[in-house]
Automatic annotation (TrEMBL):
Signal peptide annotation: none
PROSITE patterns for this protein: ADH_SHORT
Pfam annotation, one family: adh_short
Taxonomy of the source species: Bacteria, Pseudomonadati, Bacteroidota, Cytophagia, Cytophagales
Keyword annotations of the record: Oxidoreductase
Gene3D superfamilies per UniProt: NAD(P)-binding Rossmann-like Domain
Domain of life: Bacteria
Family indicated by similarity: Belongs to the short-chain dehydrogenases/reductases (SDR) family.
Species name: Pontibacter toksunensis
Protein name in the entry: SDR family NAD(P)-dependent oxidoreductase
Residues annotated as transmembrane: none
Presence of keyword Oxidoreductase: yes
Keyword Ubl conjugation belongs to the record: no
InterPro entries tied to this protein: NAD(P)-bd_dom_sf (IPR036291), Sc_DH/Rdtase_CS (IPR020904), SDR_fam (IPR002347)
Length: 250
């Protein structure tokens, strides 16, 4: 039976591209996200391997556990978990921040990643084999103006990834963390609450990373020999030197 990869946030951007990339390596794909219609579209398009979809909100711990418990036997031997679901919500100073935005970022990026991992890990532990790839960010490596809580959520992903690696080393489970800089996805549209013009301006004047770039990196990480773990990768567009230092053409 072919191996199984579980990808969160597969309805868009990095997660969607990763589902396609891992399928190229022969993984059967469990694709998850909230938007069931997008998951259905993915299933229609991704025909070279079997695809199983689970629509749930990672903020809801009961729904997350229930969804993963509902997997049929032939989908339970998960070898790769890509903890990708996440977003920034808003971008403002701490004194002008919105509690709802803060809740969303902490609940999705931090607690959601934990809920999914908590439900999937027992399936990996049964086989003493598995690879967890957490999607952090350059925002988990440096704090930038008005990034406060989003950065905090990604610093938490960094700490959780290190903690997972320490606790799971004796179990033979690899834990990797991918920390991208600016990737052109729906990320900024979500951050700026549907303001497409403002979102597009983030990626103007330079060549941003594309979701495919990150998907290929994830594909590389999970295809290393069993004794090799790429623990952490910071990946930036060539035009980006740090979180707020981007060389843009006028
Ligand atoms: P997108 O907005 O394109 O994709 C986000 C994905 O997360 C969607 O599939 C969305 O699915 C899913 N998601 C969001 N909220 C929830 C939720 N409550 N429950 C379940 N799924 C959810 O953004 P990206 O592809 O860019 O983002 C993917 C990851 O990459 C995120 O963790 C982000 O922080 C990180 N990242 C992004 C960078 C960038 O510049 N784009 C740079 C560094 C890191 P749905 O809405 O259907 O639920
Ligand atoms: C997304 C990249 O720079 O907007 O994590 O924080 S950034």
């Amino acid at each position: 039976m072919t191996k199984v990869a579980f990808v969160t946030g597969a309805t868009s951007g990095i997660g969607r591209a990763t589902a396609f990339e891992l399928a190229k390596q022969g993984y059967r794909i469990i694709a998850t996200g909230r938007r069931a219609e997008r998951l259905e579209e993915l299933k229609q398009e991704l025909t070279q391997v079997p695809v199983y979809t689970l629509a749930f909100d990672v903020r809801d711990k009961a729904a997350t556990q229930q969804a993963i418990d509902s997997l049929p036997a032939e989908w339970r031997q998960i070898e790769v978990l890509v903890n990708n679901a996440g977003n920034a919500h808003g971008m403002s100073s701490i004194q002008n921040g919105s509690l709802d935005d803060w809740d969303a970022m902490i609940d999705i990026n931090v607690k959601g990643l934990l809920y999914v991992s908590h439900a999937v890990l027992p399936l990996m532990l049964q086989h003493k084999k598995g690879h967890i790839v957490n999607i952090g960010s350059i925002a988990g490596k440096e704090v930038y103006p008005n990034g406060n809580v989003y950065c905090a959520s990604k610093y938490a992903v960094d700490a959780i990834s290190q903690g997972m690696r320490i606790d799971l080393v004796q179990e033979g489970i690899r834990v990797s963390e991918v920390n991208p800089g600016l990737v052109e996805t729906e990320f900024s549209e979500v951050r700026f609450k549907g303001d497409k013009e403002r979102a597009a301006s983030v990626y103007k004047g330079f060549q941003a990373l594309q979701a495919q770039d990150i998907a290929e990196l994830i594909g590389f990480i999970v295809s290393r020999p069993a004794h090799v773990n790429l623990a952490e990768v910071l990946v930036l567009p060539t035009a980006q030197a740090a979180a707020t230092i981007v060389h843009k053409q006028q």
